[in-house]
Amino acid sequence: MKVIVHPSRLEGTLLVPASKSVMQRACAAALIRKGETRLYHPGHSADDKAAIEVIEAMGATVQKQDDHYLIKSNGLVAKKPLLVHCGESGLGMRMFTPIAACLSEPVTLDGHGSLHDRPMGFFDQVLPPLGVKVRTTGGRLPIQVQGPLVPSNIQIDGKLSSQFLTGLLFAYSAAAAKQVVIEVEGLVSKPYIDLTLSIIRAFGLPCPENKAYQQFYFSGQTSSDQQALTRRDPFSFWVESDWSSASFFLVAGALVGPIRLQGLDMNSVQADRAILQALDAAGVGYAMDTKGIVVHPAAIKPFQFDATDCPDLFPPLVALAAFAQGDTILSGAHRLTHKESDRAHTLKNEFAKMGVLIEQDKDQLIVHGKGVLTGALVSACGDHRIAMALAVAGLRATGATEITGAEAIKKSYPDFFADLSMLGASLSLPDLN
Fold it and tell me: For the chain, which has fewer Cβ within 10 Å, the N-terminal or C-terminal residue?
């Protein structure tokens, strides 16, 4: 699908959609927790839908009701033969694989698109010492696991992604781990582990003690731990709004606003809440009150920002930095390789078409902002966040910006262009004409 973005001014109020990072973790917790769970303000992105399909395959029943999902679970149940499809969700694959390994029946996990290019060899090393038979395809998908996983003391490398640790934390919780520790070296994206632990606690599941992000200790000794996996009392959970999605609109407001965003938790542990720090550094004016965040247009200043723990902010921040007069330095570029695209490469290529030079110097992206962009024919390259970043940049570019492959947004934010249009963006889009 091709979307044409014309220079526009935005104004109005947007309720930010649900966080898929929270939604997918909540689905995993609802599967592990026996009884009824009602998920309010659920997401409906492709990754969210994949998570629902995964927990249904593993034994949960899911009903879509007026404003929530009703999830009923008796815990993990294998349906022979069990094939679990995680769509194109890296979190889904890395989180649900250890959970599936808690079953005694063989489970095959697969996905599509860029997920087949993402490294999964981590499981070849980590799961066998836990009593799990593992077979990957040369460290790639599909993966077959057969447990049951037996929690024990292990050491893992946390440098590639925190998502592997998230999966192990859920699996250890599901397996009622007692007096065992997961030791982690070089953990990246610590806020995402904070998010995982907060959801484990919210669902009343056995939760480890976090010792400086280097050790996660499951005592398994408290009465709450012993009861957590057997209680069946009904439970309700609100899926908070998504700071990742909000980041694109915060940047859009800074470029062509003002707009108001509602539904965001200012105390959220989501990693991408750090967008506010980047806006401060870039001289963007915003105000917070009980009705949300209002962001105003500003003269963008060159800035420096470390996105190591929040790599999904690279695309919107590149769009922001492109309109500064001078060089912006974004650190943490090593986190961009194993995404829906090689994002450093894609950002350099596609923004170059709009007249922005981006260089990579080891772990830094240097955006040479000129304050002006030119509309051009660009490609999302199969990456939802690239599509959104190009669209935001096109709002203030000179001339029209044509984005091919714009359907990539369905992965995380299927209503993105509809919401842009609602706020006043001038778009040529088949679904809106």
Answer: C
Task: Based on the fold, state whether residues 247 and 260 are members of the same structural domain.
Answer: yes
Q: Which residues pair with 72 in a beta bridge?
A: 36, 61
As a whole number of angstroms, the distance between CA 44 and CA 22 comes to 12
CA angle 344, 409, 53 (to 5 degrees): 110
- 282: domain CATH number is 3.65.10.10
Same domain membership, residue 330 and residue 204? no
Assess contact for 77 and 55: CB atoms under 8 A.
no
Query: Considering 161, 188, 222, which residue would you say is the last residue of a domain?
Result: 222
280 and 422 assigned to the same domain: yes
User: Catalytic site residues?
Assistant: 312
Q: Is 24 found in the same domain as 12?
A: no
Instruction: Check residue 233 and give its pLDDT.
Output: 83
Distance CA(419)–CA(401), nearest Å, equals 18
Average pLDDT for runs of 10 along the chain of length 433: 97 97 98 96 96 96 96 87 91 97 95 89 96 94 96 95 97 96 96 97 96 96 61 89 98 98 95 97 94 94 96 97 98 81 92 97 95 97 96 98 97 96 94 50
Enter the tokens of residue 143.
């993966």
CA nearest to 44, candidates 236, 245, 195, 196: 245
Tell me how far apart the alpha carbons of residues 240 and 203 are, in angstroms, rounded to a whole number.
15
Q: Note down the domain range covering 255.
A: 3-16+241-432
